[in-house]
Sequence to fold (112 residues):
Amino acid sequence: MDSTRQLKVSRLVQKELGILFQRDAKNLFGSVMITVTQVRVSPDLGVAKVYLSLFAVKDKEAVLQQIKTKTIEIRKGLGEMIKKQVRVIPNLMFFLDDSLDYAEHIDELLKK
Fold:
Protein backbone atom coordinates (compact mmCIF):
# COMPACT_ATOMS: atom_id res chain seq x y z
CA MET A 1 0.00 0.00 0.00
CA ASP A 2 1.43 3.34 -1.05
CA SER A 3 1.51 6.19 1.44
CA THR A 4 -0.22 9.49 0.79
CA ARG A 5 3.14 11.14 0.15
CA GLN A 6 4.09 8.48 -2.41
CA LEU A 7 0.79 8.98 -4.22
CA LYS A 8 1.21 12.76 -4.30
CA VAL A 9 4.77 12.54 -5.61
CA SER A 10 3.83 9.93 -8.22
CA ARG A 11 0.97 12.09 -9.50
CA LEU A 12 3.27 15.12 -9.61
CA VAL A 13 5.97 13.21 -11.51
CA GLN A 14 3.39 11.77 -13.92
CA LYS A 15 1.90 15.19 -14.66
CA GLU A 16 5.23 16.95 -15.13
CA LEU A 17 6.77 14.16 -17.22
CA GLY A 18 3.67 14.24 -19.43
CA ILE A 19 4.20 17.95 -20.00
CA LEU A 20 7.91 17.39 -20.60
CA PHE A 21 7.33 14.63 -23.16
CA GLN A 22 4.60 16.64 -24.87
CA ARG A 23 6.90 19.64 -25.17
CA ASP A 24 10.20 17.96 -26.05
CA ALA A 25 9.36 14.57 -27.61
CA LYS A 26 9.50 15.81 -31.20
CA ASN A 27 12.98 17.25 -30.71
CA LEU A 28 14.34 14.20 -28.90
CA PHE A 29 12.53 11.22 -30.40
CA GLY A 30 10.94 12.29 -33.68
CA SER A 31 7.23 11.99 -34.40
CA VAL A 32 6.47 9.65 -31.51
CA MET A 33 3.57 10.36 -29.21
CA ILE A 34 4.54 9.43 -25.64
CA THR A 35 2.01 9.11 -22.86
CA VAL A 36 2.92 8.59 -19.21
CA THR A 37 0.32 6.06 -18.09
CA GLN A 38 1.50 5.36 -14.56
CA VAL A 39 4.26 6.28 -12.10
CA ARG A 40 5.15 4.26 -9.01
CA VAL A 41 7.44 5.85 -6.46
CA SER A 42 9.49 3.87 -3.93
CA PRO A 43 8.81 4.41 -0.19
CA ASP A 44 11.94 6.56 0.18
CA LEU A 45 10.85 8.65 -2.86
CA GLY A 46 14.24 7.98 -4.46
CA VAL A 47 13.15 5.84 -7.42
CA ALA A 48 10.23 6.34 -9.79
CA LYS A 49 9.13 3.58 -12.15
CA VAL A 50 7.58 5.30 -15.14
CA TYR A 51 5.28 3.35 -17.46
CA LEU A 52 5.01 4.77 -20.97
CA SER A 53 2.61 4.14 -23.80
CA LEU A 54 4.05 4.87 -27.25
CA PHE A 55 1.94 5.71 -30.31
CA ALA A 56 2.78 6.24 -33.99
CA VAL A 57 5.85 4.02 -33.82
CA LYS A 58 6.64 0.59 -35.22
CA ASP A 59 9.57 -0.43 -33.03
CA LYS A 60 8.59 0.47 -29.48
CA GLU A 61 11.65 -1.20 -27.93
CA ALA A 62 14.01 0.99 -29.98
CA VAL A 63 12.22 4.16 -28.84
CA LEU A 64 12.27 2.92 -25.24
CA GLN A 65 16.05 2.42 -25.54
CA GLN A 66 16.39 5.99 -26.84
CA ILE A 67 14.38 7.24 -23.87
CA LYS A 68 16.56 5.22 -21.49
CA THR A 69 19.73 6.74 -22.98
CA LYS A 70 18.31 10.23 -22.39
CA THR A 71 17.24 9.49 -18.80
CA ILE A 72 19.74 11.96 -17.35
CA GLU A 73 18.44 14.81 -19.54
CA ILE A 74 14.83 13.90 -18.75
CA ARG A 75 15.55 13.78 -15.00
CA LYS A 76 17.28 17.16 -15.23
CA GLY A 77 14.26 18.67 -16.98
CA LEU A 78 11.95 17.12 -14.40
CA GLY A 79 14.14 18.49 -11.63
CA GLU A 80 13.84 22.01 -12.98
CA MET A 81 10.05 21.65 -12.99
CA ILE A 82 9.53 20.17 -9.51
CA LYS A 83 12.56 21.37 -7.52
CA LYS A 84 10.43 23.63 -5.31
CA GLN A 85 7.98 20.83 -4.45
CA VAL A 86 10.19 17.85 -3.52
CA ARG A 87 13.45 17.44 -1.67
CA VAL A 88 14.93 14.70 -3.85
CA ILE A 89 14.38 14.30 -7.57
CA PRO A 90 13.74 10.55 -8.01
CA ASN A 91 15.86 8.40 -10.30
CA LEU A 92 13.75 7.42 -13.28
CA MET A 93 13.27 3.89 -14.60
CA PHE A 94 11.26 3.60 -17.82
CA PHE A 95 9.09 0.65 -18.83
CA LEU A 96 6.63 0.02 -21.67
CA ASP A 97 2.97 -0.11 -20.69
CA ASP A 98 1.44 -2.70 -22.96
CA SER A 99 -2.01 -2.71 -21.40
CA LEU A 100 -3.55 -0.93 -24.41
CA ASP A 101 -2.01 -3.44 -26.82
CA TYR A 102 -3.32 -6.26 -24.64
CA ALA A 103 -6.83 -4.77 -24.58
CA GLU A 104 -6.74 -4.35 -28.36
CA HIS A 105 -5.67 -7.98 -28.75
CA ILE A 106 -8.55 -9.14 -26.52
CA ASP A 107 -11.01 -7.07 -28.58
CA GLU A 108 -9.76 -8.73 -31.76
CA LEU A 109 -10.19 -12.17 -30.23
CA LEU A 110 -13.72 -11.35 -29.07
CA LYS A 111 -14.71 -10.15 -32.55
CA LYS A 112 -13.76 -13.52 -34.08
